[in-house]
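REQUEST FORM: STRUCTURE PREDICTION
Request ID: SP-0412
Submitted by: Lab K.M.
Chain count: 1
Length (residues): 324
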Amino acid sequence: MLTRRSLVKAGVAGVAAMPAVVRAAPAAEEPAPRPLRIAHLTDIHVQPERESAAGLASCFAHVQSLADRGAAAADLIVTGGDTIMDCMEADDARTKTQWDLWRKVKADACSLEVRSVVGNHDVWGWTKARAKTTGTEPLYGKKWACEQFGRALPYESFDRGGWHIVLLDSVYPHADGYIGRLDDAQWDWLDKDLAAVPATTPVILVSHIPILSVHPLASTTAAHPGTDGKPSFALSGGLVHVDHPRFQELFARRPNVKACLSGHLHVVERVEFGGMTYLCNGAVSAGWWKGLHRGTDFGYAVVDLHRDGTVDCRYVTYGWTAKG
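STATUS: Completed
RESULT:
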């Protein structure tokens, strides 16, 4: 005989016996990988004069304060050459003073990893008469800079954040000075280095001298007659790479090379040519610590490298003004 109480009990038991239905929560979308951020500090030209050491420390502090992505300000600092004011024409005492200053400021003011490109002003003693060198000194030429940067060769490559980063040596001896190009040994190394990189891995090249530039600074200051009699401007081999056609051939074979960073000209320039992006990123020292250079302020570039191979680059100033 069914009673109200038995019906209630039966109902409860029935509910308890029913299998539970579990609905999975909608899967959260995977956040896009954070881009690799490089702070590109080129043409520092640190020296005992003009309070450049304090200026460099201020620049390092600014880099380490960037927090617009909620984590590390930058993953890596790459210095783009001309770390010190000059040692191509300096004797060994002046050269040592400048490198000691660089090491001290970096140790005291920078907690980030630093990788460095060799610039023309980092090469010791090629102008022998002024530098009082013979060419037989143990640290002659690029050896002193390599010792400071902790490597055997003036060029290197490494992987970071899904990118392959190549630091080139673009300073080639010419008379008592230099031109922009790679020597044969470096070209051979570069071909083999890039051949070992998977085609899906994006690559960025960093040189001191621009591989390509169209900025007026890279031209002679006055026009001269061309072959057709019209005014013409010539690009200086000391301001751009003379072996650019060989790079064009390389880029055609290696489409995963996405951009080329440089310095040397102390100006900000972006060139798009032949499917390649060339970024010349001003100068930490602006006009060699004396003031602005052709309107370019004391600054550096923030370069975000995305996993899909795109590159975002912006030039930022760090608030320095010329002293002395």
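NOTES: Residues 1-23 have pLDDT under 50 and may be disordered.
Reviewed by: T.R.
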